[in-house]
Amino acid sequence: xxxxxxxxxxxxxxxxxxxxxxxxxxxxxxxxxxxxxxxxxxxxxxxxxxxxxxxxxxxxxxxxxxxxx
Length: 69
Fold this sequence. Notes:
The chain is of the alpha/beta class and 69 residues long.
């Protein structure tokens, strides 16, 4: 099964997501974590059997004026 985890942080210190992705991958799933990119981080990397893809947002504003933190 292909599984994508979408998170609103750079996935550098998110132990919960790392543990979930690693466990899913160890059970034979294809796992991709889509995270936010920030300067100094790789846009793509492999970790413990899963992939992390970091996207650069043009804005950090959501519809309705709320911003991402």
